[in-house]
Amino acid sequence: MGNQIELRHLTYFLAVAQELHFRKAAEKLFISQPGLSRQIKQMEEILETQLFERNKKKVSLTPAGHYLKKEVTYIFNHLEKVERQLKLVGDGNSGELRIGFLGSAMQEVIPKLLLKIKEVYPNVKSSLEELTNTAQVDAVLNDRLDMGFVRLSRVPNTLRMETVFKDTFSLVLPERYPMITREFEGMHQFSNDEFILFSQAYSPLYYDTIMSICQDAGFIPKVSHKSVHAHTIFKLVENHMGIAIVPTALQNGFQMRVKFIELKNIPQRAELSVIWKKEHTNPVLKNCMELLIGK
What we know:
single chain; alpha/beta; 9 helices; 40% helix; 23% strand; DNA-binding; WH_DNA-bd_sf
């Protein structure tokens, strides 16, 4: 086995790749620093590739090291998933479904899915994690999530994406905004207002869609604040820091001094999509996807 890569090599490599410091990595692994250095050197000799650049001041990854770090991270994530699945099978359960989501997915889509899973597959355990669009894509790609609910126009070709919910948009105004709902004629009436939006980095598709709604009304919105949380956006609107446009479903569950005007007569819609890996290995995912989209 002396000329083959073993799991311990990958463990040692990942510790050094994460810390970029041999002493700290050795302490983390509870081994000696010289011993760790020997293991890394042996690994580089077996692979015939240099993984780290070393000098007296710092340790850094070579291009090969960067590539290997990404692959080893995926391997360990997958091993962790397999371990959890085996424990669940051993306990007499069918398995686990790890779900990532945006806050708006909790208004309708996810609760309905979880109720269906509980009814049809009562032994399936599920875990939920609220993450940004990009974080969900990364987690699904690297096997930390089985599925995610996102607002994106496209994803890497190793993932599948299906629209699961189309919603209208609604204008969010302070409760005492100097215009009553029946006086609403169109978005052009708000060209002089400041807008509060979800961050472009959080959801580029949402951001671009809001821009197009305003541009269709003949103006470019003045953006005063950005956030990644609907509660924060509504709080800012409530305190007259600006107005907002959000998916209509988000108006449920918030008790604030704001009012909503549904924008029914515009072509733009807020699309929520589910993403999952084409080549997934979780048998639970297939059954749950059938409940969600019939596939």
